[in-house]
Design goal:
This protein has 316 residues and is of the alpha+beta class. The chain is 17% helix and 34% strand. The protein starts with a strand and ends in a 19-residue tail after the last helix.
Length: 316
């Protein structure tokens, strides 16, 4: 589900798929919450890294403030996020486990990629990142004193030494490397051995994104690349990454997996793809771009990926 909109009445907020031409859902971030809750306020409730949703027939919905009160939740923290199409949104972390009825369930964010609208998934990711930042910056990292939260800005401040801690974003690169109409895919030893994805890694201090792309490919599979071009980006709240996607071409060298992170890597044509990440990630967007572009250029017929390729995974 790519987008949706809000239907509001006194009982619930329903998010359903938008029709063509209706425009995108508008989220306006803010740190200043209204003085009191409204019944239709949305609340993104987390138990560790699991998000609470309300099951309504075949739908999974973000519960409203009114609905969540019936569960008698106890929160360790609750933070204001902003508004989605005029509806106030909050992030909350449970300090005790909830006893759920059949109308509620917990899921990781990634399995919900195919269930919730994209705009709602983005807010869920923001909620998780903000909660993680708040819980991990209760004390100053320099002098150890308890921090305070600035009322009009998303920042923790130490009242003793003045250190400021903003929500931290960790930059990551991912790259689709092409050689003679084939795509470089690798199997990560920490994930399923039969699942293949693109080369990815964290940016090191002092690096540009392009330098990080070259280094990661060299370190993980021993080849050199050229023609590096920016493709797009995606927030990846596990817990606080921002992934920048790139395309590139092989320049020299043959594949030698590092044996530490990468167990196997190879070149794959559009018609012989191995199991890959499901839709929803920038990795899959890059792979789909390659398949569509190179299948068309080579006169290949595009085929639907087998169901096994769409299974949920921990990979990007």
């Amino acid at each position: 589900m790519d987008s949706g909109f809000l239907l509001v009445n006194s009982a619930c907020v329903v998010i359903r798929t938008r029709q063509e031409g209706e425009g995108e859902m508008l989220f306006i971030p803010s740190v200043t919450s209204p003085e009191e809750h409204l019944e239709q306020d949305l609340i993104f409730v987390f138990q560790k890294d699991l998000l609470l949703t309300r099951v309504d027939g075949t739908l999974q919905l973000i519960p409203t403030f009114q609905q969540i009160q019936a569960l008698e939740p106890s929160f360790s923290r609750k933070l204001y996020l902003g508004t989605l199409d005029g509806i106030h949104c909050y992030a909350a972390e449970l300090d005790v486990c909830l006893k759920l009825s059949g109308h509620y369930r917990f899921d990781g964010i990634r399995p919900l990629f195919k269930v919730l609208p994209e705009a709602v998934i983005k807010i869920a990711g923001k909620a998780f990142q903000i909660l993680h930042w708040d819980s991990s910056h209760q004390f100053c990292g320099r002098c150890g004193n308890r921090t305070s939260t600035k009322a009009d800005e998303r920042v923790k401040i130490c009242p003793i030494c003045g250190l400021q801690a903003y929500p931290r974003i960790t930059p990551v690169i991912i790259v689709a490397v092409v050689r003679d109409g084939k795509l470089l895919l690798a199997s990560n030893k920490s994930v399923r051995k039969d699942l293949y994805s693109l080369i990815a890694g964290f940016i090191e201090p002092g690096e540009s994104f392009e330098e990080g792309v070259r280094r990661e490919v060299r370190e993980e599979v021993n080849i050199e690349i050229e023609d590096i071009h920016y493709f797009g980006s995606q927030s990846w709240p596990f817990p606080s990454s921002l992934i920048a996607g790139y395309t590139a071409h092989h320049r020299s060298g043959e594949i030698i997996p590092d044996g530490v992170e990468i167990g196997h890597a190879d070149w794959f044509s559009p018609g012989s793809m191995p199991p890959i990440p499901p839709p929803g990630s920038i990795s899959r967007r890059l792979i789909d771009w390659f398949v569509a572009h190179h299948a068309r250029n080579n006169g290949c017929q595009l085929r639907a990926y087998p169901a096994a390729f769409r299974r949920d995974t921990d990979s990007n």
